[in-house]
Amino acid sequence: MKWKNHQFGEFEFDDDHVLTFPEGIIGFEECRRFVLVNDEDSRPFHWLVSVEEEGLSFPLIDPRLLIPEYAKEFGAKEDSTVLVVATIREDVERSTVNLRSPVVISNVLRTGKQVIIDSDSFAMEYPLFPSTHQSVKG
Amino acid sequence: MLVLSRKLDESIMIGDSVVVKIVSIQEGQVKIGIEAPKDVRILRREIYDEVNISNVKAAKGSKDAATKLAKMLQKQFPNAERNAQKP
Fold first, then answer.
1. Is the CATH number 2.30.290.10 carried by domain A2-137?
2. Which residues in chain B have their CB less than 8 angstroms from residue A129's CB?
3. Fewest Cβ atoms closer than 10 Å to its Cβ: which of A103, A127, B38, B44?
4. Which of A69, A75, A71 is nearest to A84 (CA)?
5. Residue in A56, A78, A88 to test binding to B, most B beta-carbons within 10 Å
6. Quick one: B2 and B32 in the same domain?
Protein backbone atom coordinates (compact mmCIF):
# COMPACT_ATOMS: atom_id res chain seq x y z
CA MET A 1 0.00 0.00 0.00
CA LYS A 2 1.06 3.56 -0.61
CA TRP A 3 1.04 6.13 2.13
CA LYS A 4 2.30 9.65 2.71
CA ASN A 5 3.61 11.07 5.95
CA HIS A 6 4.47 14.68 6.62
CA GLN A 7 7.99 13.74 7.73
CA PHE A 8 8.81 10.75 5.60
CA GLY A 9 7.03 11.70 2.40
CA GLU A 10 5.59 8.97 0.21
CA PHE A 11 6.43 5.40 1.02
CA GLU A 12 5.08 1.95 0.40
CA PHE A 13 4.33 -0.62 3.01
CA ASP A 14 3.30 -4.22 3.06
CA ASP A 15 -0.01 -4.99 4.75
CA ASP A 16 1.77 -7.72 6.72
CA HIS A 17 3.92 -5.06 8.36
CA VAL A 18 1.02 -3.12 9.80
CA LEU A 19 0.86 -3.08 13.57
CA THR A 20 -2.62 -2.86 14.99
CA PHE A 21 -3.12 -0.96 18.22
CA PRO A 22 -6.66 -1.93 19.29
CA GLU A 23 -6.73 0.89 21.84
CA GLY A 24 -4.64 3.32 19.84
CA ILE A 25 -1.96 5.40 21.50
CA ILE A 26 -3.06 7.30 24.59
CA GLY A 27 -4.57 10.61 23.47
CA PHE A 28 -4.73 9.36 19.87
CA GLU A 29 -7.19 6.54 20.37
CA GLU A 30 -8.78 6.96 16.95
CA CYS A 31 -5.55 5.88 15.21
CA ARG A 32 -5.16 2.12 15.29
CA ARG A 33 -2.89 1.21 12.41
CA PHE A 34 0.82 1.98 12.35
CA VAL A 35 4.01 0.85 10.69
CA LEU A 36 7.42 0.93 12.30
CA VAL A 37 9.82 2.91 10.14
CA ASN A 38 13.55 2.52 10.64
CA ASP A 39 15.06 5.70 9.31
CA GLU A 40 18.81 5.47 8.70
CA ASP A 41 19.55 9.11 9.53
CA SER A 42 17.85 9.13 12.90
CA ARG A 43 18.98 5.72 14.15
CA PRO A 44 18.71 4.55 17.00
CA PHE A 45 15.21 6.02 16.81
CA HIS A 46 12.42 4.04 15.26
CA TRP A 47 9.27 5.80 14.10
CA LEU A 48 5.79 4.61 14.81
CA VAL A 49 4.04 6.08 11.79
CA SER A 50 0.27 6.16 11.54
CA VAL A 51 -1.12 4.86 8.25
CA GLU A 52 -4.42 6.57 8.94
CA GLU A 53 -3.33 10.09 9.81
CA GLU A 54 -0.68 11.73 7.63
CA GLY A 55 0.62 14.04 10.30
CA LEU A 56 1.10 11.49 13.05
CA SER A 57 4.34 9.76 14.01
CA PHE A 58 6.09 9.01 17.27
CA PRO A 59 9.83 8.62 17.73
CA LEU A 60 10.57 5.49 19.76
CA ILE A 61 13.79 4.14 21.17
CA ASP A 62 14.93 0.85 22.64
CA PRO A 63 14.94 1.45 26.41
CA ARG A 64 17.78 -1.03 26.84
CA LEU A 65 20.13 1.58 25.46
CA LEU A 66 19.44 3.59 28.60
CA ILE A 67 18.53 0.92 31.14
CA PRO A 68 19.73 -2.56 30.21
CA GLU A 69 17.33 -4.30 32.59
CA TYR A 70 14.28 -2.23 31.73
CA ALA A 71 12.12 -4.84 30.02
CA LYS A 72 12.80 -7.36 32.75
CA GLU A 73 11.97 -4.84 35.45
CA PHE A 74 8.48 -4.37 34.22
CA GLY A 75 8.00 -7.98 33.21
CA ALA A 76 7.68 -7.93 29.44
CA LYS A 77 6.98 -11.18 27.66
CA GLU A 78 9.78 -12.69 25.64
CA ASP A 79 7.97 -12.60 22.32
CA SER A 80 7.35 -8.89 22.56
CA THR A 81 9.31 -5.81 21.57
CA VAL A 82 9.41 -3.01 24.08
CA LEU A 83 10.10 0.54 22.94
CA VAL A 84 9.68 3.84 24.75
CA VAL A 85 8.32 7.08 23.36
CA ALA A 86 10.85 9.88 23.04
CA THR A 87 10.05 13.55 23.38
CA ILE A 88 12.62 15.17 21.13
CA ARG A 89 12.91 18.85 21.85
CA GLU A 90 14.34 21.44 19.53
CA ASP A 91 16.96 21.95 22.24
CA VAL A 92 17.88 18.30 21.68
CA GLU A 93 19.97 17.88 24.81
CA ARG A 94 16.84 18.34 26.86
CA SER A 95 15.07 15.45 25.15
CA THR A 96 13.45 12.84 27.35
CA VAL A 97 11.91 9.39 27.11
CA ASN A 98 8.77 8.15 28.77
CA LEU A 99 9.68 5.08 30.81
CA ARG A 100 6.30 5.07 32.50
CA SER A 101 4.25 4.14 29.46
CA PRO A 102 6.19 1.98 27.01
CA VAL A 103 4.88 0.70 23.71
CA VAL A 104 4.74 -3.08 23.76
CA ILE A 105 4.48 -4.86 20.44
CA SER A 106 3.56 -8.51 20.15
CA ASN A 107 5.91 -9.91 17.53
CA VAL A 108 3.59 -12.83 16.88
CA LEU A 109 0.21 -11.10 16.72
CA ARG A 110 1.54 -7.87 15.20
CA THR A 111 -0.46 -5.91 17.72
CA GLY A 112 0.68 -3.13 19.98
CA LYS A 113 -0.36 -1.38 23.11
CA GLN A 114 0.86 1.55 25.12
CA VAL A 115 0.85 0.30 28.67
CA ILE A 116 1.07 2.43 31.78
CA ILE A 117 3.20 1.08 34.59
CA ASP A 118 1.51 1.66 37.91
CA SER A 119 4.68 2.66 39.72
CA ASP A 120 6.34 5.99 40.37
CA SER A 121 9.77 4.42 39.93
CA PHE A 122 9.51 4.79 36.14
CA ALA A 123 9.89 8.40 35.07
CA MET A 124 7.57 9.97 32.55
CA GLU A 125 10.36 12.35 31.53
CA TYR A 126 13.62 10.46 31.82
CA PRO A 127 16.44 12.63 30.43
CA LEU A 128 18.57 11.19 27.64
CA PHE A 129 21.48 13.29 28.88
CA PRO A 130 21.12 13.36 32.65
CA SER A 131 23.87 15.84 33.56
CA THR A 132 22.89 18.39 30.93
CA HIS A 133 19.27 18.13 31.85
CA GLN A 134 19.97 18.80 35.52
CA SER A 135 22.17 21.78 34.86
CA VAL A 136 19.52 23.27 32.58
CA LYS A 137 16.90 22.69 35.24
CA GLY A 138 18.85 23.85 38.26
CA MET B 1 -22.22 12.91 34.08
CA LEU B 2 -24.28 10.37 35.98
CA VAL B 3 -23.95 10.92 39.73
CA LEU B 4 -24.98 8.19 42.18
CA SER B 5 -24.84 8.19 45.97
CA ARG B 6 -23.36 5.10 47.58
CA LYS B 7 -22.63 4.07 51.15
CA LEU B 8 -19.75 2.02 52.48
CA ASP B 9 -19.66 -1.52 51.00
CA GLU B 10 -22.20 -0.64 48.35
CA SER B 11 -21.27 -0.96 44.72
CA ILE B 12 -22.10 0.05 41.18
CA MET B 13 -22.11 -2.12 38.09
CA ILE B 14 -20.91 -0.77 34.77
CA GLY B 15 -22.04 -3.02 31.97
CA ASP B 16 -22.06 -6.74 32.79
CA SER B 17 -18.50 -7.12 33.89
CA VAL B 18 -17.30 -4.10 35.85
CA VAL B 19 -18.08 -3.68 39.54
CA VAL B 20 -17.01 -0.60 41.47
CA LYS B 21 -17.25 -0.88 45.24
CA ILE B 22 -16.78 1.65 48.03
CA VAL B 23 -14.28 -0.06 50.32
CA SER B 24 -13.63 2.66 52.86
CA ILE B 25 -14.41 6.30 53.52
CA GLN B 26 -12.01 8.17 55.75
CA GLU B 27 -10.96 11.74 56.23
CA GLY B 28 -11.90 13.04 52.85
CA GLN B 29 -10.55 10.00 51.02
CA VAL B 30 -12.57 7.23 49.43
CA LYS B 31 -11.06 3.82 48.72
CA ILE B 32 -12.58 2.14 45.73
CA GLY B 33 -12.36 -1.52 44.77
CA ILE B 34 -12.74 -2.39 41.12
CA GLU B 35 -13.47 -5.74 39.53
CA ALA B 36 -13.06 -5.72 35.79
CA PRO B 37 -11.89 -8.02 32.97
CA LYS B 38 -8.15 -7.97 32.39
CA ASP B 39 -8.39 -6.10 29.10
CA VAL B 40 -10.14 -3.13 30.68
CA ARG B 41 -7.64 -0.40 31.37
CA ILE B 42 -8.02 1.10 34.83
CA LEU B 43 -6.05 4.25 35.50
CA ARG B 44 -5.89 7.19 37.81
CA ARG B 45 -7.14 10.01 35.63
CA GLU B 46 -4.16 12.28 36.27
CA ILE B 47 -1.72 9.60 35.05
CA TYR B 48 -3.70 9.22 31.84
CA ASP B 49 -3.62 13.00 31.38
CA GLU B 50 0.14 13.13 31.93
CA VAL B 51 0.76 10.38 29.38
CA ASN B 52 -1.58 12.15 26.99
CA ILE B 53 0.38 15.40 27.29
CA SER B 54 3.66 13.53 26.95
CA ASN B 55 2.42 11.80 23.76
CA VAL B 56 1.23 15.07 22.25
CA LYS B 57 4.71 16.52 22.80
CA ALA B 58 6.37 13.38 21.42
CA ALA B 59 4.25 13.52 18.27
CA LYS B 60 5.76 16.92 17.52
CA GLY B 61 9.26 15.45 17.47
CA SER B 62 10.83 16.30 14.13
CA LYS B 63 12.96 14.00 12.05
CA ASP B 64 15.59 16.72 11.74
CA ALA B 65 15.91 17.17 15.50
CA ALA B 66 15.95 13.37 15.87
CA THR B 67 18.79 13.13 13.36
CA LYS B 68 20.78 15.70 15.30
CA LEU B 69 20.04 13.88 18.54
CA ALA B 70 20.88 10.53 16.98
CA LYS B 71 24.43 11.70 16.23
CA MET B 72 24.91 12.65 19.87
CA LEU B 73 23.45 9.36 21.05
CA GLN B 74 25.68 7.34 18.75
CA LYS B 75 28.63 8.92 20.55
CA GLN B 76 27.12 8.34 23.97
CA PHE B 77 26.06 4.76 23.21
CA PRO B 78 28.60 3.41 20.75
CA ASN B 79 27.21 -0.10 21.29
CA ALA B 80 23.73 0.95 20.25
CA GLU B 81 23.88 -1.17 17.13
CA ARG B 82 24.81 -4.29 18.97
CA ASN B 83 22.27 -3.88 21.74
CA ALA B 84 19.37 -2.58 19.77
CA GLN B 85 16.42 -4.81 19.14
CA LYS B 86 15.47 -5.48 15.58
CA PRO B 87 11.73 -5.02 15.64
1. yes
2. 72, 76
3. B38
4. A71
5. A88
6. yes
